[in-house]
Design a protein that fits this description.
4% of the residues lie in helices and 49% in strands. With 305 residues, the protein is mainly beta. It has a four-stranded antiparallel β-sheet with strand order 1-24-23-22, with no helix packed on it.
Length: 305
């Protein structure tokens, strides 16, 4: 662990390299499917689920018919997607989908945004107002028995979510607050309690967006408007690494490849001026960097029991 931590704090300029020049309007939701060796990610505004295979360099695009906030693989081999109108089962071969839960029928201006599965295979996903309204969204937990539960209320832009290696803490981002909240997490019940601020991201670094966690329980956070991914120790609050990304708006990240040692990073062209696009012509692309630490395997939705 000492060697990994040293490599995470080396003091040198680090810049991610382009993997896929996808020109995404709003790339998001990166997650590594370790069973298939593929990166799953989305373009929210183009309503596309992407499945990228680094071995073949082929990116499969699947049209979802609604804005898509995020995707998680399921134990059955298919996927769950959080679309504008709800959570759906999605067949990654045929593209067919089935509505499983629609928790906000009274809020047609909201859509689902980011989300991930917890260690016991429950799907957590949150919403956002498409009109820019604040504190009208929420974070939900969708269980394998198809019940859905509101877990955090008065959310503005629900984003990154991860769990500690010992399964006792959950970290969660509501972007406009610039905070990463920590909760006590009960893996047996899926309940959370005792919310407190783990990190506050300085405004000058950008807004905290998608997030992943590494083998040392450090948090890697995509920085919207910050052209970077930052690595923070949530116990000390220390920024211990920073990866520059050649795009203004960096949206999500996930450790991948066979050794989980490559950080894949999504970005957006949205909210980027023509002058900024001249500076960052590959904005909206997928990038990668090997930071010297490894991630942990993603959790899958438990739909086989």
């Amino acid at each position: 662990m000492a060697l990994a931590l040293f490599s995470c704090t080396e003091n040198k300029t680090k810049t991610a390299e382009l993997v896929l020049d996808s020109q995404s309007v709003l790339g998001e939701g990166a997650i590594w499917n370790y069973k298939t060796g593929e990166l799953m990610w989305v373009d929210i505004k183009k309503e596309i689920l992407n499945i990228y295979n680094p071995a073949s360099a082929f990116n499969k695009e699947m049209f979802t018919g609604q804005m898509i906030g995020t995707v998680v693989p399921a134990e059955s081999g298919n996927a769950l997607v959080a679309l504008q109108k709800g959570i759906y089962f999605f067949d990654i071969e045929t593209g067919s989908k089935k509505l499983l839960a629609a928790p906000e029928p009274d809020k047609p201006a909201n859509r689902f945004n980011d989300g991930k599965c917890d260690p016991s295979g429950r799907f957590w996903a949150g919403t956002i107002s498409t009109k820019g309204e604040r504190e009208v969204a929420a974070l939900y937990r969708f269980d394998p028995d198809t019940s859905i539960h509101k877990m955090v209320d008065k959310v503005s832009i629900s984003n990154g979510i991860v769990w500690s290696g010992d399964k006792t803490k959950m970290y969660y981002i509501d972007t406009p607050t610039h905070k990463v909240m920590a909760y006590d997490y009960d893996d047996t019940t899926g309940e959370i309690s005792n919310p407190r601020v783990a990190l506050t991201i300085p405004n000058e670094l950008g807004g905290p967006d998608g997030m992943t966690i590494d083998e040392n329980d450090n948090l890697w956070i995509a920085l919207w408007g910050g052209s970077a991914v930052g690595c923070w120790n949530p116990e000390s609050g220390e920024l211990i690494d920073k990866i520059e990304v050649p795009a203004k708006n960096v949206t999500s990240c996930a450790f991948g490849d066979n050794d989980l040692g490559t950080l894949y990073i999504t970005s957006a062209r949205q909210n980027t001026s023509p002058e900024e696009l001249e500076k960052w012509p590959h904005a909206g692309g997928v990038f990668k960097f090997r930071p010297g630490v490894k991630g942990v395997q993603a959790f899958y939705f438990n739909d086989v029991n």
